[in-house]
Design brief:
By secondary structure, this protein is α+β, with helices and mostly antiparallel strands. Among the domains are: about 405-580, Jelly Rolls (Sandwich); about 615-845, Rossmann fold, CATH 3.40.50; about 855-915, 2-Layer Sandwich (Alpha-Beta Plaits), CATH 3.30.70.100. Helix content is about 25%, strand content about 25%. It is globular, with a radius of gyration of 32 Å. Keywords: ATP-binding, Hydrolase, Nucleotide-binding, Signal, Transport.
Length: about 950
């Protein structure tokens, strides 16, 4: 095997240590493991039985390099929904024997058919006829292709949900985006799929290396079926990276590992020559779903990632067109992730479960053919978590029964330019590292924009500044003309890499999708030019007004086997860049970070969940729910959240918030306060329990969220906009009328004066905090939820905030404040809930909790004599003189008895009352050392 570049080995090491997604356990499923013999292999399987049988079944296939253990969480989740679930390690992976055939019809696909036979013999599985179980199939990438191929070869499959997978494996690994005859521009991401493509050596090398150690102990770096990850994207990674220290299985060929000889030979040929031979083309063809899409009748949910340099949006586009042509129901979903961008969110996982519920059991809501896609905001939380929104169009454009694709034409400016291919193809541009797009985070697009434009190797063609914002939704197109430079010898073909970048007025460049379109163009030797239409990578990219789009044509790219013979080419772009546009309605947040996040992402997500969710329900014609006017603003019952590994963050939390109350949620770090707030705002799902607001259940996209304003986990705004513009932009994103924002009231609350017109990038922390609270109050929500609202405020600002919250609640609204400042809660709130170790340890009015102890204060004329008298009383301790007052812990002694003892001793008592502060009660409830 040719030696992999060090950077790819480094990528493998890094990818195997990326964090896995957390899932709640499913204790109700009965789990049975079994070895199943099939021709040429023994499969290691696990069966998950739901609480009630018979039930429809779901096969869950894993990603490349994974095993049945990789999809355990998804299998359990589907079993909890009531399905019989069968997961297995594909041949050559995990504990299964056999050799990897890349989903060969007579191997991996036949194995899955044999598993259907086993389901057909089980009384626990609903049967549609003799030998015909009612069954769905899902999987990601390698498992997703298996879903499609099995549905094409075995008509017993009743529904499928493939995730981030391919249509044509030859085109995926040897893409050519230049077509001499332009393909129809009827769908959002139709690829050129031209012949004689450019070898995607980076990804191919990573996957071949992963297969070398596929069966070795500890090398299973698996993936979840609906998390959208192969082993190389780092899901559930615990062992050494294959190819970076993982030994080949005992008895395996040291060069080919567990691959079949023909797969090994195909890779060796491609890696050596950089070309697609006839033999390799035939092998990849047999593993391509496109060979069977014309006979898939199982309703199909296609989920594809918008940041995926392995299997782009064009692969899902092809699957959708071909399957829908049969009259088969098809829904397409794009999410903000992929092989380079991370796992789908809970919304995607829920959509997969809902798809099977509808088509296998006839329950739930008809998912229809709506087309949801994610729009990243450009703001990121932590190192690599995007924030944004989900837009839903009526259908994927171009499919039967859906609308036509919209386009926008942008004129390009730029003269023909000469670009050179260096000898050996080095130095080469670096636009993406396989699987590391997500790990590089928001820097990846900007880094790749710089490194894809090496001097002398690239030409650029630029649009005018956009007059209005533009949402690129799919694959842009541009004509490209290539000619030889006179007198320069060179190869018969020009291998070029075309990309699109967004450039701001200050020169900041971002490569859209962190991806390039490789093209191979046959250039006549007589000096005449060759012209082709280039289909650029499919992306979803919001472009701000005032920015430009730049088309770059480069001669090298590290991820591909480009030209090595020195050459010079004259390249010219066509007059226009044609950009696809798919209008839709913003309905929800696409990705909300679970860990500490940028505040604007969380707040914007809450608003989109609220207003957009309500709008979507109205659009679908759902019956309006009449709220119960007597229901409290918030009621939480037996709420629990348990993460993967058994960690319980919240256990049996119950409390109620009444109208007009200002309730303080208190607890030391780790008490579970923020987890409760996240579940309240629909950002994460509880393991158990219920949350209702105004009598309506709370969850992601729940219409009742429209009545809640929130500020959770820190402020964050677009720094180049003013404070006022940030508030206006936020409100515009909710889709509600401007008149309902009550913007003047919010600006008055901010108390920033003329500074509200300054750029937020110049604000202090306290100014950002006040602006964030004003943002939460836009629309004057009936329930206001604030997490640490006084962070960064000075004492006068804290005092002003206290008054704002009191006035807000006095007007009939309700406020929930989570804070660690006990004195502020005591002075602001009239009710307190104290949490410790994930449980509620106290719930009551501030006066009740403060008055629950025996501490008292006496105002006297002779403090020292009074202290002596009190100290002699039985049980009284902790006596302290404080000026004209004496404090004492009475420890059960009636206060009246203490007063009587003082008066008898000749001490005049001016007043006597409870001494305890909220801090004292808090420390008694949670312990003095809770902060540690």
């Amino acid at each position: 095997m040719p030696r992999l570049p060090r950077v790819l080995l480094l990528a493998l090491v890094l990818l195997t240590v990326l964090p896995a997604t957390a899932y709640a356990s499913t204790p109700g499923a009965a789990v049975t493991e079994e070895r199943v013999d099939v021709p040429g292999a023994t499969l290691d399987t696990t069966l998950y039985l739901p609480a009630t049988t018979p039930a429809p079944a779901v096969l869950v296939a894993h990603g490349f390099g994974g095993s049945k253990d990789s999809v355990d969480a998804d299998a359990r989740a589907l079993a909890e929904r009531g399905f019989v679930v069968l997961a297995w390690s594909a041949r050559g992976f995990g504990a299964s024997t056999g050799q990897i055939g890349l989903n060969a019809p007579d191997a991996e696909v036949a194995d899955a058919s044999a598993l259907l036979d086993r389901l057909a013999a089980m009384p626990e599985v609903v049967q549609d006829g003799p030998g015909d179980p009612r069954v769905g199939v899902t999987g990601a990438s390698y498992g997703g292709a298996l879903s499609l191929l099995l549905a094409g070869y075995d008509p017993r499959v009743d529904a499928i949900a493939p995730v981030i997978t391919w249509n044509d494996l030859g085109q995926a690994l040897f893409p050519n985006a230049a077509a001499t005859t332009a393909p129809p521009a009827d769908t959002a991401a139709r690829g050129a799929f031209a012949p004689d493509g450019v070898f995607k050596r980076g990804w191919a090398g990573v996957f071949f290396s992963a297969g070398l150690g596929a069966g070795s102990a500890g090398a299973d770096t698996g993936s979840d079926a609906t998390t959208g990850s192969d082993s190389t994207t780092g899901s559930d990674a615990t062992g050494p990276a294959p190819g970076a220290g993982a030994a080949a299985p005992a008895g395996a060929d040291p060069v080919c590992g567990r691959f079949t000889a023909e797969v090994c030979a195909a890779y060796t040929d491609a890696a050596t020559t950089g070309r697609l031979s006839t033999t390799t083309a035939a092998l990849l063809e047999r593993s391509s779903p496109r060979t069977v899409t014309d006979r898939i009748t199982a309703p199909t949910l296609l989920v594809q990632g918008e940041r995926d340099t392995l299997f782009g949006l064009d692969q899902a586009d092809a699957n959708a067109r071909q399957i829908a042509a049969n009259g088969t129901p098809v829904q397409v979903r794009w999410y903000a992730g992929g092989h380079d961008g991370g796992a789908p969110d809970d919304g995607v996982r829920t959509a997969v479960g809902d798809w099977f519920s509808w088509y296998l059991t006839g329950t739930g809501e008809d998912p229809g053919t709506a087309f949801p896609y994610a729009v990243e905001s450009g703001i990121r939380a932590g190192s690599n978590t995007p924030t944004g929104r989900t837009v839903v169009a009526a259908g994927y454009p171009g499919l039967p029964g859906t609308g036509a694709l919209g386009t926008q034409v942008l004129p390009l400016d730029g003269d023909p330019a000469v670009v050179a291919t260096p000898a050996g193809g080095s130095p080469a541009a670096i636009t993406a590292l396989p699987g590391l797009g997500g790990a590089l985070g928001s820097l990846s697009g900007r880094i790749s924009s710089l490194t894809s434009a090496l001097p002398g190797q690239s030409a650029q063609f630029t649009s005018a500044p956009l007059a209005d914002p533009l949402l690129v939704t799919g694959a842009p197109r541009v004509d490209l003309t290539v000619a030889r430079v006179a007198g320069r010898p060179g190869p018969a073909d020009a291998i070029l890499f075309v990309s699109t970048s967004e450039v701001t007025p200050d020169g900041t460049r971002t490569l859209l999708g962190s991806a390039v379109a490789p093209v191979r163009v046959a250039v006549p030797a007589d000096g005449s030019a060759a012209t082709a239409t280039v289909t650029l990578p499919g992306v979803v990219a919001p472009v701000e007004a005032g920015n430009r789009l730049v088309v770059t044509v480069a001669t090298t790219d590290q991820a591909y086997a480009g030209g090595t013979e020195p050459a010079a080419w004259t390249v010219a772009a066509g007059a226009d860049l044609t950009v696809p546009v798919v209008p839709g309605e913003a309905v929800t947040a696409s990705t909300v970070p679970v860990g500490p996040a940028i505040g604007i992402g969380v707040v914007l997500a809450v608003a989109l969940l609220a207003w957009g969710g309500a709008a979507l329900v109205r659009r679908r014609g759902a019956a309006a729910h009449d709220p119960d006017p007597t229901a409290p603003p918030l009621e939480i019952r037996d709420l629990a959240k348990t993460y993967r590994g058994g960690f319980s963050a919240v256990q049996g939390v119950s409390f109620r918030v009444e109208p007009g109350q200002v309730l303080g949620l208190l607890g030391p770090n780790g008490a579970g306060k923020t987890t409760v707030l996240r579940m309240l705002m629909g950002l994460i799902r509880p393991t158990a329990g219920t949350i209702t607001a105004f009598g309506e259940p709370v969850g992601p996209g729940a219409p009742v969220l429209a009545r809640i304003g929130a500020f959770v986990e820190g402020p964050g705004f677009l720094p180049h906009l003013s404070g006022a513009d940030n508030l206006r932009l936020y409100w515009a994103a909710t889709g509600r009328p401007t008149a309902e924002a009550h913007l003047p009231e919010a600006l008055e609350i901010a108390g920033l004066g003329a500074s509200v017109e300054r750029r937020v990038g110049t604000y202090s922390q306290g100014m950002r905090q006040r602006l964030a609270i004003a943002q939460a109050m836009l629309g004057l929500p009936e329930l206001l939820v604030l997490d640490e609202p006084t962070n960064g405020l000075d004492p006068p600002q804290i005092h002003a905030m206290r008054e704002v919250l009191r006035r807000y609640a006095a007007g009939g609204r309700t406020v929930l404040v989570s804070s660690h400042l006990l004195a502020e809660v005591e002075q602001t709130c009239d009710h307190v809930v104290v949490m410790h170790h994930g449980k509620v340890v106290a719930d009551g009015s501030v006066d009740d909790i403060i008055g629950g102890g025996g501490a008292a204060t006496f105002a006297v004329d002779a403090p020292d004599r009074a202290a002596d008298v009190l100290g002699r009383l039985d049980g009284v301790h902790a006596v302290e003189v404080d000026g004209a007052s004496v404090h004492a812990e009475l420890n059960g002694t009636p206060r009246a008895s203490a007063v009587r003892a003082l008066v008898t001793a000749g001490v005049d008592v001016a007043s006597a009352g409870p001494r305890r502060r909220l801090e004292d009660a808090f420390l008694q409830l949670v312990g003095e050392d809770s902060g540690s």
